[in-house]
Amino acid sequence: MSYAGLKSYIYCGVSRSDPRAQAAWSWIGAHYTVTEHPGMGDTSLYYYYHTMAKTLDVYGQKMVRDTGGRPHDWSRDLAEQLVRRQHPDGSWYNDNARFWENQPSLVTRNSLIALSYCLKRA
User: Is residue 52 within 8 Å of 74, Cβ to Cβ?
Assistant: First the structure.
């Protein structure tokens, strides 16, 4: 939920220098991944992708630095991961049915929204 929290701070006009925003940004760097939903595995994975993309787009940062100092181009990483996860019929869905992520109509929508944010940054 750090992505959603950071996005909410931005929408409310909270400065990036605010300790709460800094804490959320630090968490994002410490847990950066596109292979799973941090702490949740594949549960709500596509919701995570959607929220991650929207937040990082709104934040305006092209690169996320992990705790090792390595930069990650989040839009490229996420787009590549989504392409890898797309099913042969063009849809996306999760084998994990929790939060209805086994429903192609819901998950494909989240995936396309995430990709739209990735394309804005490409």
Answer: yes
- Residue spans of alpha helices (H) in the chain: 2-11, 19-30, 45-59, 74-85, 104-121
Query: Are 110 and 49 within 8 A, CB to CB?
Result: yes
Q: What is the pLDDT of residues 41-86, one digit of tens each?
A: 999 999 999 999 999 999 998 999 999 999 999 999 999 999 999 9
CA distance 122 to 117: 9
The DSSP call for residue 62 is S
Structure tokens at 7: 């996005």
Q: What mean pLDDT, rounded, does the chain reach?
A: 96
CB 30 within 8 A of CB 66: yes
Percent of the chain predicted with pLDDT > 70: 98
CB 49 within 8 A of CB 82: yes
How far apart, in whole angstroms, are the C-alpha atoms of residue 88 and residue 9? 38
Q: Which two tokens stand for residue 105?
A: 């109509």
- What gap in Å lies between CA 48 and CA 1, rounded to an integer? 9
